[in-house]
């Protein structure tokens, strides 16, 4: 099953011309924008388009109305195609948002969304398109964040990389989307200081040194693994799921700005991906820098964008540093203890799927 998506950005708005980041505000096409919308229609009306899917924000709707009025091609508005919600900064100067954008890949804008949440909504839309429009060619009219999400989900381009490239208009982008693209995990998670890269068996050689300090095991038990044992463990984890298939194993190597491995984060997803247990470890030389909190917050945001409704972690009651990490990531203590560790829980509500 596959569908061809032709992506076109909405036409130029008065905010674009004034250097304003519209976000979730409606926006209005400028005179130049209206002319370009008509050109879009001339370009796509006879391009084999079976249907048009547009953001429900006014500037995108106007673009579709001008481009396809009287064409007979059905136009569907979809809230999942909205621009990222900048929250308190909807309508702020573009320069201000551009300077802060990379900080909100995983962490939502104050009062708004993260870009990872846009990815989750885009994935959900793609799932519907693949199921309902198999073999068809459809047009999507949306915003920058949606194109970055498509590049990530279909092309594997990290969000941070897409954001760093200056916008260069072109007459559409084409993607062929399959069911496998919709199911595939997007890979790297980035923060302002860290990159979380999917764990591979080959990471064991570097991680053996990171995990070599016996003090790391004071609260979680065990001892530093041998290189052979770590290679075997990572080979199992890299499979991505338990032998019975009832657990999804999601593991990342945490790397600093220099690309050096400093620790790991992991999530074990169950109940069809609705619940996940997370854990983290940062090597002793890199502790005290806030890396564990930064990585855990990013992981929780990523899980929420994928539809995980409940995030759990077990923390020893005397491990105060890990308690602080859990609380900062939005998990709250419960009265339940398992094997001497307190259960911390975050129930993801509307903040994980803003729309």
TrEMBL record:
Q: Fetch the SUPFAM superfamilies from UniProt.
A: Acyl-CoA N-acyltransferases (Nat), Phosphoglycerate mutase-like
List the Gene3D superfamilies. 3.40.630.30, Phosphoglycerate mutase-like (3.40.50.1240)
Annotated N-acetyltransferase domain ranges read 194-350
Provide the residue positions that the database annotates as binding substrate.
22-23, 59, 83-86
Which InterPro entries does the record match to this protein?
Acyl_CoA_acyltransferase (IPR016181), GNAT_dom (IPR000182), His_Pase_superF_clade-1 (IPR013078), His_PPase_superfam (IPR029033), Ribosomal_N-acetyltransferase (IPR051908)
Catalytic residues (UniProt): 10 (tele-phosphohistidine intermediate), 83 (proton donor/acceptor)
Q: What is this protein called?
A: N-acetyltransferase domain-containing protein
The organism of origin for this protein:
Planotetraspora kaengkrachanensis
